[in-house]
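subagent[fold] <- orchestrator: predict structure for attached chain, return tokens only, no commentary.
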Amino acid sequence: MMSDSIVVIQDIPVMFVAGDRANPISEQAPSAFAELEAKLETLKGRHFYGVIVDGEYRACVGLRPQDDRHNLPYRTWVIPGGKFARRKLTSWERHRDQIGPTMLKLRERGDFDKSRHCIEYYRSQRELLLMVPIQ
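subagent[fold] -> orchestrator:
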């Protein structure tokens, strides 16, 4: 059995691209990230997140201090922070089919806080951190 770590994260200011709600979440994510990455000068040094908001997948990139907040190519939002249970998924690009089931398993926790959003943090091309809010 995989063990989960407990973390507290701060609010994360991001810009995002929303997927098309007419499509399943699994189809929204790749197209939203492709659109998001298309207008970024570089991906290097950026932090990427995925969040589902009312059936809409949001591909997000964390804002950096040097970003011109008045001239951003996408809408902005703040991913709410708080206490989360976190599970690491390695080689996620080869195991995309495990993301949804792993997140669902995490949501079965007795302390899951369904009033807040689950977060995918794409820490690197090799490592994905799946986080569910807990009370």
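orchestrator: received. Logging for downstream: The chain has a mean pLDDT of 92. The first strand starts at residue 5 and ends at 9.
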